[in-house]
Amino acid sequence: MNGEFIAFLILSFTAILGGILMLNLKKVVHMLLSVVLTFVSLAGIYVLLSAEFVAVVQILIYSGAVTIILAFGIMLTKHTARDERTSNRLRAALVGVGVLVFFFTVYGAIDNLFFGPGAEGLHVENTQQIGERIFAHYVIPFELVSIVLLVALMGAIVLARKEGEENK
Amino acid sequence: MIEFAWLIPALPLLTFLLLIVLREKLKKASGYVAVLISGITFIVATLVFLQLIDVGNFLMEWSWLTIGSIDISFGILLNPLNGLMLLLVAFISFLIHMYSLGYMDGDQRFSTFFAYLSLFTSAMLGLVMSPNLLQFYMFWELVGLGSFLLIGFYFYKNSAKQAAKKAFIMTRIGDVGLLIGLILLFWQTNSLRFVDIYQAVTNGDMSGGMITLIAILIFIGAIGKSGQFPLHTWLPDAMEGPTPVSALIHAATMVAAGVYLVAVMYPLYMASSLAMMIVAIVGAFTAIYAATIGLVQNDLKQVLAYSTISQLGFMMLAMGVLGYTAGIFHLFTHAFFKALLFLAAGSVIHAVHTQNIKEMGGLNQKLKLTSAVFLIGALAISGFPLFSGFFSKEEILASVWAEGQYGLFIIAIVAAFLTSVYMFRLYFLVFHGESKLTLDKVKPVPMTMKIPMMVLALFAIFSGFFNTSWFGTYIADFLEEGATYLEGIHHGSSIWLMLLATVVSLGGIALAYLIYVKNALNQENWKTSGTYQMLLNKYYMDEFYDNTFVKGSRGIGLGFQYVEKYFVRLIILFIGDLVTTFSRTGSKSQTGQAQTYTAVAFLGLVLFAAVYMLKGGY
Amino acid sequence: MTTIPLQAYLILALILFCIGLFGALTKRNTIIVLICIELMLNAVNLNLVAFSQLGNNPGITGQVFSLFTITIAAAEVAVGMAILIAWYRHKNGVNVDEMDGLKD
């Protein structure tokens, strides 16, 4: 029972708690905030896994950008909206059973999985390592991702723009 | 010439097709076309017949179907019997085509009538030329079809419609018997060719019981077609058709097909004394049964119809007592005088527009020729000495006597006596006595109708001389030449039989004269008696059939209707509902909601994953 | 280096994935459905990062891939949000069960 293990327990607990709260809370904004809890906890987990850069990106992108976009989405639509839990109880029950079966199925697959002692030194100059890897090996995917981002940006603008605005 | 024999049935078929296709164009001309082609058919038939007298036998076959090792052929068989029938049918058909020109004049469906008439002629000619039973059966049914179409020619009259249906259904009952017999024969002999069947009978390939069974089944077919008791009821009703049709189909040719069938299958019958006995008894019973009904009927054509049934009974009787040549000879003479009687009756009806003999009388002044030919026909059918019927009937009586069937002999004598009574009742009531019709209502008879009647009258008088014990038995000799199995059977006639026949015939005529001309006997008691009512209602046969078979089938039908209503329909409704429910559910599941679709897809994935895991798939 | 076994991370990821899946398939509000999808993506990211440390073939590549995933997820959220807003203008509602255009 070392500090690392305690940290993992706390972080994983908060992550799961965030998810469960998201499922059970009434207000949409509360749901969003509870999910932020999960995102932040996951960032901590990433640090435990020697992935500081990813952890930072997680906080920046998820806890920051994505959450803000979703919050804007909520505000622009019915921000007072409450989510009635589900539209169809039968479907919820069926999906629940299905998810449980899925859980145990996958659990059976990952139980007692062990590949070795793990990598050494990923945390040493983590950002530099990532930078080298991206720009040495994954330049083209990187550039493609930038194009995807650009297209997404334009697409978002086009879609969100009011219809018939170009006529003005 | 004989190799062109196939033209004989083909030519009327051509007429049929021509008239059906060009019905609108030809109109009045279609009648002349039909008469012309039937004339050519008759000439071809005559030439073929003349050559056949020298050749004796002719067979031409094309392979039609091959099933395993069995060959079914299609072809033409000519032997004395076929040749005689061919000539007879072609000749009478030609005369009736000509007669119809006048009789059907002005009818709306003039061309159609000739088309049907040609179809029938073609089928009948094909029938008599068939070398095997299958082809025979096909033409047999075609003949039935022609008869059906022509009986129902005035289809807008309900009675004609009913009569056509009745004829079709009643003969169909007989045809089922024929078909079963045909199948049994095929099963036993592996062939349907007449020669193979004769061979099989001669070789004793079939057991006696089987031969009897087949012979009786085939005879049932003949009963249906030839209007023998108990399937005779359609024939009087068939008089709803135009009179030329009655003359051609229901007197001279088609109804004789039953007799012809028995003649064709004669070796089979000769091998079974029981079957022969049945043929003889049915024939004799029909002869007297129909003759008694004919005594009291008041419809001109009905009386002739019953007389046809009775005469066919005579032919069957002859067939049943080994009087093969006598039966065919009577068929031959009967065709002439019965066609003549019908044509005469037709011209009476044509002139006065009624068929009820109570409304006629004294027509011999107005319709001199018709009256004369009708008298000739009546004398012929009554067996008046030296007329054709005298010789043929006398020969039948001789055959019956020679076989020692004295019971049947008495029946035949009585039936012959009754024949002359009812024929002369008809003659006296229609042509003698006081005229009950106003004079201007009587239309003249056109030439096209007169000529066939005169020709037929000649034949009615003289056709008997083709086969007499005085001048030579030409027809009998000719027939026996082609049928070797007939050897050793010859019924010579004797003087006393001729005298008896003459006495019977003259006695009948005298009785009719006394009753209907001199009113010598009191008819009132007779008319109120139960026997009279029974005869007038044809022994209540129609009512009997109606109450048993028709009502019975109706009852069964009703029962099945209820089964259909409450059982079958229930199942069908259930199935329908099932499908509807399924489709409702199915269409309801098409909500268009991506989330639901995804959920279903996910559940499917889970199912597969779970099965995979349970099978220990990792 | 780390004392926590790989399966602990994987089970955490599985739990989060299941929560996200359940929410995505049952929630009516489209924004919540989007959030749930993000949660599922996060669970996948966690797997990537865990395998980069403790996997069969450890290395920095897993982290790089998780970065790509995060980027794509961000783009997806942006487009998704834009569609949602357009839809909202059109129908004045954000519930998934009102979107049944596929039926036609």
What's a quick, concise take on this entry?
By secondary structure, chain A is mostly helical.
Rg result of chain C = 17 Å
What's the quaternary structure here? heterotrimer
Order of helices and strands of chain C: HHH
What does the overall shape of chain B look like? globular
Which protein chains are joined by the largest interface, and how many residues does each one contribute?
A: A-C, 90 and 75 residues
Poorly predicted parts of chain C: none
CATH top level class name of chain C: Mainly Alpha
Net shape of chain C: elongated
**Rg of chain B computed from alpha carbons, rounded to a whole number of angstroms:** 30 Å
- Overall number of structural domains of chain B: 3
Helix content of chain B: over 70%
- Specify the number of helices of chain C: 3
User: Gap between N and C termini of chain C, in Å?
Assistant: 58 Å
The average pLDDT score of chain B comes to 81
Reported for the largest beta sheet of chain C, the result is: none
User: What is the total tally of β strands of chain C?
Assistant: 0
Approximate strand percentage of chain B:
under 5%
Number of domains of chain C: 1
Main location (chain C): membrane
Subunit structure (chain C): NDH-1 is composed of 14 different subunits. Subunits NuoA, H, J, K, L, M, N constitute the membrane sector of the complex.
Protein name (chain C): NADH-quinone oxidoreductase subunit K
Keywords (chain C): Cell membrane, Membrane, NAD, Oxidoreductase, Quinone, Translocase, Transmembrane, Transmembrane helix, Transport
